[in-house]
Amino acid sequence: MTVLTIKAKHDHLAKVASTRDYVKALAEFVWNALDADATEVSVEFARNPLGGLSSILIRDNGTGINKTRADHDFESLGESWKLQASRTPVHSRVIHGKEGQGRLRFYSLAQKAHWTSSYSDDGDLFELTIDIDADRLQTSTVSEPVPAPDGSTTGTVVELSSLKDTFDWLTSEEARSDFGAIFAPYALQYPGVAIFYDGHRVDPNATIEKAHEFETRPIICPGRVVRDMSLRVIEWKGKVGSRKIYFGGESGVVLGAQAANVTAPGFDFSVYAYSPFFQEIANANLLEVDGLTDPDFARVLEYIRDEVGDYFRTRQAEKSGELIQELMDAGVYPYEGEPKDEVERRERQVFDIATHAVSSYSRDFKKADNPLKKITLGLLREAISHNPESVSRILKAVFNLPKTRQDEFSNLLDKTELGHIISASSLIADRVVALKVLGEMVFEPKHRQSMKERGELDVLVRDNTWIFGEGFHFTLQEAGLTKIMNRISEELALKRAKGAKMRKPDGKIGRVDSFMGRVVPHPDRLHREFLLVELKRPSLIVGRKELDQLEDYVNAILAQPDFISTSTFWNFYLVSGEYDAVVKERITQKERPVGLYLDKPNHRVWVKSWAELIRDSESRLQFVQEKLRIEVSAEEIEVRIAQLKSSILKVETERPTEPPPQAPVASTPEFAVSPQ
């Protein structure tokens, strides 16, 4: 018997031998068997009477380990015989290991590793055993060769015993799938080799749905250019792949793996990337490290994920197309003809993918009759059209889609940017409607003379503060500002009350104008910015009197103790149908925008006509619409106008037959309105 001591310390060997990928640890012994020209290798799990794992065996029919090789290889680390060979001596297959470290991978699984190997020497068959203990990795015990028992053949059995954990997961379908994905390329390359895992043969030909080879392109990394990486993706028919990227060296043998992290709803796949670059990374024992910081490897990994992600988006479209054609033929597809614009084109893309997800994972949908499918898909279309962010919740609540698939769909929705596009489309439609209705309210004779600032104009303006500028698109209500404005309104009304006409029918004093205030969000939490709008009825021509009243109100606001010595800015707007020559002179001063009456360090005062506000708003709206290339149909606009008129103008309007449903308008807090 020979006792061999590796010339390295135990702690170093333990670091080299450790792995969190237990399937990979077992795979190392299988690679060793294949490198020994085995044509059949099996990973077997021995169970105790209670059904738990007692040991793991890796059995092969290779050429075995002779005494000379055992003495050399088990005494050395990194001096394997494979360094001098590129192919196996008998079958001329590519060689996997060259580092002489694979035999130590048992360390993460078991306390002991025992080899029993039979080999041929000058026509005679001999057998020897090798033992390594996890507590003494630097020591290997190699027995003297003895004649092999009658009927023996060459080969090796490795037994891993005294397991460090239960390792029941190793017998699961997931572990078997991961093992199969590792050896699938090898099995494809060498169909005469039979590899078994827990009694199941690795047979990729029976489980491959589709394989795709990517074009080789140079990858520019921070420290180098990787020019020779081959990339392949295999789609599996069932749960075979574990959605990993497997990295191999120049020989095409898998060295390590990382999670794919690729959005591909409905696909089970494995990705294989081969390059000498990965051999370098494997030599540094880095392929298993999560969050690898090597900048070159990180860039290559990003490239792989981008390429594979693009591939599966194309495949998803192909699969969805087949299903969509079936739905069209059945008359349940909720769209007709070609998309009318870019929004509907993107909308259909997401709808088709969501429908494919539903069809793949909802048994109830598959069994449903066509009328029910038509109703269901119609509801799904409405959700995507008007609130795409809610679709993931619908897929869970209605179709019971698994969470992993929900997450994939959410990621896919983010990639299409449909939510942003539909939101922009809905925003444009809402603004077109608001401007059309506002124009009718302030310009049409039948409304212009009777239109009131309270209960009519203010209702429309409070939800459309964007007409004063995009900076006021989002504004907030503040109770404190409301109280202050109420207080000032009462004070000013008392000062101005000179006759009965300033009194309300009940005899109480109040304001006749409509003044509304909003808080404008600001990144500095200590700074406050306000938008205050005084609305005048469209028939009123604003003159000096109204301008003086506005200035009184501005001064009263600014003088309030609530705002003294604070970081505050005010935007005041006086809006009416027309203004006289005196006002025009004051708001058309040189080197100032038209309408700017006062421009002070802490406030600006504007006077605008409805015509000017509407014209400015239409100009901004047209610019956004052209940039986004979004069109809103005339039919949709008419329906929305009818609904808005009905709610604001209190008029009965004839609705078109079967109008498309109204997209939900973003909820905006109420303006703070001074009481009359």
Automatic annotation (TrEMBL):
Gene3D superfamilies: Histidine kinase-like ATPase, C-terminal domain
Pfam families documented for this protein: HATPase_c_3
Region (Disordered): 651-676
InterPro entries: HATPase_C_sf
Designated name of the protein: DNA mismatch repair protein
